[in-house]
């Protein structure tokens, strides 16, 4: 079985490009050119140089001694939290801004929920001197003031989405409307392995630097390129796609994807897409999504803003349905405890998204000889007020 995208843009039955007629030229242009542009040596050189000198790659692969001792296995943390801007998202936005330049685009648009992708996009637009417009739900703008300030400081214009529930899906609709109206000069930077083909594949390739480095680093440390397991949290699925990418075809490597169960899968307040989702279409892609019996998208919930997404990328829908990936749901409480545990055992304050992945150790027993790589997708600075409120610090 193949776990890579086919020539029609599908992973198994998932993916494709379900887009309004008027977006067709933009998406088709990207589809025709993305592979050729990415393969060009000058592109590779500029991308790798920026990942090294601007982002600070390679990110360390750190053997977590005290955590390993506690769970009686061998745990490595892939330190995406140490990247410039504090998470993996910048790997993708750097790749896409270079892509936009090659496509002759002058103007960048993006949508953001919690603001993390907006900040990563505003960052690379400042770096390249490009105009940047970030659509954000009006409710999210008031909930995420620090990230709104960051985007403004980086020179982006933050435009409120005032329709619907005034959250991420409404911001996405506004961004798509903008793209339809500005097809010539604008590139739309999508922040995860979601959206119409070729976005899921393009973003996975940009993030695949994570597993490329894991292989090299593990070879040096353990004499093998292949761990027994890779664990990553899944919102849309980009950090997981990057951490899994070079292991997809080696079925000896277990792939564990961790979703947010919020207040519990059965509580009506969760973002556990694989557990609760049904096939449907969201953001131009056929995938699993949480929806009502008549097909309305359900508003998701998680204590971590980055996992608060009602769908999942088509690659992950395929990994779930084919059984290649093992999907685990973690509640708010389990994640918060695991986040605090990492602080106290290793001196690392994780993003609450990444803390969901860490909570797997409390749920699943690994062998003493196993090598388990956990992708630590981001740092917890942005989550300090959530930690303070949760633990009464
Ligand atoms: C945005 C975010 C996520 C979730 O996004 P994916 O596309 O699923 O990776 C996970 N961790 C952190 C730190 C994030 O900022």
Structural summary, described in words:
This protein is α/β, with parallel strands linked by helices. It folds into two domains: 20-50 and 89-202, 3-Layer(aba) Sandwich (Rossmann fold), CATH 3.40.50.1100; 56-87 and 208-391, Rossmann fold (3-Layer(aba) Sandwich), CATH 3.40.50.1100. It is built from 16 helices and 14 strands. Strands 3-4-14-9-10-13 form a six-stranded mixed beta sheet, sandwiched between helices. α5 (116-128) links the parallel β5 and β6. The chain is globular and about 55 Å long. The structure holds pyridoxal-5'-phosphate. Residues 87, 89, 116, 192, 233-239, 306-307, 351, 353-354, 377-378 line the site of pyridoxal-5'-phosphate. This is Tryptophan synthase beta chain. Keywords: Amino-acid biosynthesis, Aromatic amino acid biosynthesis, Lyase, Pyridoxal phosphate, Tryptophan biosynthesis. It catalyses: (1S,2R)-1-C-(indol-3-yl)glycerol 3-phosphate + L-serine = D-glyceraldehyde 3-phosphate + L-tryptophan + H2O. Residues 56-378 form the Tryptophan synthase beta chain-like PALP domain. Pathway: Amino-acid biosynthesis; L-tryptophan biosynthesis; L-tryptophan from chorismate: step 5/5.
């Amino acid at each position: 079985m193949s776990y890579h995208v086919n020539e029609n843009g599908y992973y198994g039955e998932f993916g494709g490009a379900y887009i309004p007629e008027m977006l067709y030229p933009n998406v088709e242009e990207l589809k025709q050119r993305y592979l050729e542009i990415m393969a060009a040596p000058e592109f590779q050189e500029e991308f790798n140089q920026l990942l090294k000198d601007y982002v600070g790659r390679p990110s360390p692969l750190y053997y977590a001694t005290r955590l390993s001792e506690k769970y009686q296995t061998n745990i490595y943390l892939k330190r995406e939290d140490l990247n410039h801007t504090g998470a993996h998202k910048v790997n993708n936005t750097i790749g896409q801004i270079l892509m936009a330049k090659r496509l002759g685009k002058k103007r960048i648009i993006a949508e953001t929920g919690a603001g993390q992708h907006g900040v990563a996009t505003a960052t690379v637009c400042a770096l390249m001197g490009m105009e940047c417009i970030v659509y954000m739900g009006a409710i999210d703008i008031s909930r995420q003031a620090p990230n709104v300030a960051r985007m403004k400081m980086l020179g982006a214009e933050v435009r409120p989405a005032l329709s619907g529930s005034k959250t991420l899906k409404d911001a996405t609709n506004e961004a798509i409307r903008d793209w339809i109206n500005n097809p010539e000069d604008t590139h739309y930077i999508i922040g995860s392995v979601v959206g119409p083909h070729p976005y899921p594949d393009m973003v996975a390739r940009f993030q695949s630097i994570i597993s490329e480095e894991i292989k090299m680093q593990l070879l040096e440390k353990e004499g093998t390129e292949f761990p027994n397991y890779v664990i990553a949290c899944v919102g849309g699925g980009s950090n997981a796609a990057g951490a899994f990418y070079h292991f997809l075809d080696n079925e000896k490597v277990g792939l564990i994807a961790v979703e947010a169960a919020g207040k519990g899968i059965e509580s009506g307040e969760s973002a556990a897409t694989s557990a609760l989702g049904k096939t449907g279409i969201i953001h131009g892609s056929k995938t699993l999504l949480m929806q009502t019996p008549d097909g309305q998208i359900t508003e998701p919930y998680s204590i971590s803003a980055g996992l608060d997404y009602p769908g999942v990328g088509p690659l992950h829908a395929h990994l779930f349905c084919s059984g290649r990936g093992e999907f685990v749901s973690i509640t708010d409480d389990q994640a918060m405890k695991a986040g605090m545990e990492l602080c106290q055992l290793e001196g690392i304050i994780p993003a609450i998204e990444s803390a969901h992945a860490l909570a797997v150790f409390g749920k699943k027993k690994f062998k003493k000889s196993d090598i388990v790589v956990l992708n630590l997708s981001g740092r917890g600075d942005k989550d300090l007020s959530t930690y303070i409120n949760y633990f009464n610090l």
